[in-house]
Specification:
With 356 residues, the chain is α/β, with parallel strands linked by helices. It folds into 2 domains: 163 residues, 3-Layer(aba) Sandwich (Rossmann fold), CATH 3.40.50; 181 residues, Glycogen Phosphorylase B (Rossmann fold, 3-Layer(aba) Sandwich), CATH 3.40.50.2000. 36% of the residues lie in helices and 15% in strands. The chain is built from 14 helices and 11 strands. Helix 1 links the parallel strand 1 and strand 2. Helix 1 packs across helix 14. The longest helix is centred in the C-terminal third of the chain and has 18 residues. The protein is globular. It starts with a strand and ends with a helix. This is Protein-arginine rhamnosyltransferase. Belongs to the glycosyltransferase 104 family. It catalyses: dTDP-beta-L-rhamnose + L-arginyl-[protein] = N(omega)-(alpha-L-rhamnosyl)-L-arginyl-[protein] + dTDP + H(+). It comes from Polynucleobacter asymbioticus (strain DSM 18221 / CIP 109841 / QLW-P1DMWA-1).
């Protein structure tokens, strides 16, 4: 089938990351014909860089305007249109769908949530005045929702020297072999200065890998540079592709992630992590976080539950860091659980079956 995916980038990386991962899964795993129309091609292309050219060349990446401004060569009507995260389709593109002899199916791909109400709305019709069939599709963890994007499943195990991605080889050669590794990709509101100072006071050797631009974003080296003892060292990562970032998560002992795509990748890395969920004014993010933790910690001991909840709500590392070993075992078991629950192929496979 022919698929058109529309992606308007709100959160710089997360929206584009989900759309790209969905496109590559549909194309490489399910043999679908996929186009992406995106309003920020530089970001999308950066995330897609480093991918096997045989995978990338199968996906037609186009600017947003190309969906409706190419008058001489109008866009062919697809079988499926995906509105990622409820973005509105361009009016002229929608008009072309009205007059098409065979109408496509429109999928409103919603945000990921572990909240119980999601299963009540997943797959439900969303009647439109124009008559083109449209349905809600909710990604999620339960069996009766849309599933998770799995492709590619990240590596697990010790570092193999010749597997270090080219863009990270220079950085990796400077890391200390006797130090723990923590990657950080968070929003500006995180209390990172205080968090790092508290971590340093624990006395362990830790190498901190800051996502591209984070040192400047969080003003760690600005007018009042952060002062840390020698046991804690900060390293700024270059901008890396989606696959390279997945690899980084798999090679760290602990990860701080944000958004939707990196949230799932941290779980698939099988390592303890903090999900810095995007803060919302109505505090809806707190409900979403609590719903996830109810699932994530359902089989955990009371001590681990308290430690994990403390970490996820930005308690200082001194309150929970000594639980890292048992948390690591739990994270590996959770990864195995996720892969078993998504054994039907996850979101891309469920979406293809839903359309059929």
């Amino acid at each position: 089938m022919r698929w058109d995916i529309f992606c308007q980038i709100v959160d710089n990386y997360g929206d584009a990351g989900v759309c790209w991962r969905l496109a590559r899964s549909l194309s490489s795993l399910h043999g679908q014909e996929v186009r992406i129309f995106c309003d920020d091609l530089p970001t999308l292309n950066l995330l897609a860089s480093g991918v096997d050219p045989r995978i990338k060349e199968k996906i037609d990446i186009q600017p947003w305007e190309a969906s409706h401004e190419n008058v001489r060569h109008p866009v062919k009507v697809p079988d499926v249109v995906v509105e990622a995260f409820g973005c509105e389709l361009p009016e002229r593109y929608l008009t072309n769908l009205f007059i098409a002899p065979i109408k496509p199916i429109i999928i409103n791909l919603e945000y990921l949530s572990a909240e119980p109400w999601v299963s009540e709305f997943h797959g439900k019709a969303s009647p439109q005045s124009h008559g083109i069939p449209k349905y809600f599709f909710f990604p999620g963890f339960q069996d009766d929702v849309g599933g998770l994007l799995l492709d590619p499943i990240p590596p697990i195990g010790s570092l193999v020297e010749n597997q270090i991605p080219k863009d990270l080889q220079a950085l990796w050669s400077t890391l200390r072999p006797n130090a723990k590794r923590i990657s950080i990709f968070c929003y500006p509101g995180a209390p990172l200065r205080k968090w790092l100072s508290d971590l340093a006071a624990l006395g362990e050797n830790v190498d901190i890998l800051l996502a591209h631009g984070h040192a400047e974003q969080l003003n760690l080296y600005g007018e009042q540079p952060i002062e840390l003892p020698n046991n804690l060292k900060l390293f700024s990562m270059p901008f890396v592709s989606q696959d390279e970032y997945d690899w980084v998560l798999s090679q760290c002992d602990f990860n701080i992630v944000r958004g939707e795509d990196s949230f799932i990748r941290a779980q698939l890395a099988g390592k303890p992590f903090i999900w810095h969920i995007y803060p919302q004014e109505d505090r809806a993010h707190e409900v979403k976080l609590a719903a996830f933790l109810d699932l994530y910690l359902s089989d955990a001991s009371q001590d681990l539950k308290l430690a994990t909840i403390a970490a996820m709500t930005w308690a200082m590392p001194s309150d929970w860091f000594n639980s890292l070993q048992i948390w690591n075992k739990h994270a590996q078991a959770w990864r195995t659980h996720l892969l078993e629950k998504q054994g039907d192929g996850g979101l891309a496979a469920r979406l293809v079956r839903f359309i059929a």
